[in-house]
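Ligand: S-adenosylmethionine. Inputs:
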Amino acid sequence: MHRLEISDLITAVDPHTGQRLPVRRDEVIRRLRANGDERAAKIVAGLPADQDGVLDPRAVDRLLISVHTELQRLSEELRIGERLMHLLGPLFTAIRATGGQGGHSGPYRLVDVGCGLGYVIRWLAATNALGADVELVGVDLDAALVGEAEQLARVEGLDCRFVHGNAFDLPQAATVYVSTGVLHHFRGPALAEFFQAQAASPAEAFCHFDIAATRLAPVGAWIFHRARMRHPLGRHDGVVSAERAHSDEALLSAAAVPGIRPLVYEPRGAANPFCTTLRPIIGVRPYLEAPLRRALGRSERRLVDLEHLAEASR
Ligand SMILES: C[S@@+](CC[C@H](N)C(=O)[O-])C[C@H]1O[C@@H](n2cnc3c(N)ncnc32)[C@H](O)[C@@H]1O
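Predicted complex:
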């Protein structure tokens, strides 16, 4: 049984209204103990609660914002903006070249699912890397994180926007969905449902970066989070997220939904395990695969489907 991430347990929202729900500290502690994680239970026991034992929502928000601020450093050090652009550049070239086969002749919309503090969207806005015809939108179920993202973007004078809510319930459809560090939060049937929601939408493609499930990932995460994160919650969740990382096979199988061609870029076996910490699962409408490969040039060899995964890993 995998350990649980504390940050997934200390906030709760009504999935229909988006309204914040009270979270009882002893209930979180009970769940963590039942899962055999005494250290996590101790961390939660140290969080402030009111006389009814409900966790203080403002203290929880402050803590999660500070942990995500530290997480942003991970994104900076891993050059996640550049790595995302290495694929999004060719992807938008392919989308523009197909002349709107999916009904998208521009302007386009890029939606970051679970944007947290919006690092990726703010990086794309600051560099104007995708061009003026791509609207940049970050969406998160957590009101405090998305509020902070909005404020940072305003201070930085960036042309992008942030929305509190479910990324798949937006009034305007995305052309491309992206995410970073989100996939491992979806367990069991929720992972396939995540990909099905995108296949059922008018989106043309998705590109989701998450921790590569290498043998070294939990050790690497331990070293990095020990060195970089101050709060024990950030350290704990960083290692647990590496332990919970999905394999390339699991992601490609879950993303194999009708109307989507699932591919992995630089699968685990093809990469140096010391260097790769995040790699993307890409899904494109079938008519986009050939133009995407053309736009990638020599790098197209690194784009692998489930059928060729074993070969690429040799
Ligand atoms: C670990 S955080 C990742 C934050 C950010 N992407 C980063 O790299 O720092 C995962 C976030 O996904 C959000 N989330 C999960 N499912 C979502 C959905 N369907 N729509 C919007 N946000 C979602 C959660 O609220 C959580 O804040």
